[in-house]
Amino acid sequence: MELIKEIMDRAEGLTGELIRLRREFHQYPELSHEEERTAGVVARYLQDLGLEVKTGLADHGVVGTFAGSRPGKTVAWRADMDALPLEEKAAVPWRSKVPGVMHACGHDFHLSVGLAAARLLSGMKDRLAGRFRFIFQPAEEGPPRGDKSGAQGMVAAGVLADPPVDAILALHVAPNLDVGYIRHSPEVVMAGADRVELAITGKAAHGATPHRGVDPILVSAQALTQIQSFLAQRIDARHPVILTFGRIAGGNRFNILAERVELEGSFRYLQESVRQDVEQGLKGLMRGLAQGSGAKIALHFHSTYPLLKNDSQLSARAAEVLARILGKNHLKLHQPAMGSEDFSYYAARVPAFYFFLGVRPPGGKVQSLHSPEFDPDEAGLTWGLKAAAGLLATLSEP
Ligand SMILES: [Zn+2]
Ligand SMILES: [Zn+2]
Question: Whole-model pTM?
Answer without folding.
Answer: 0.92
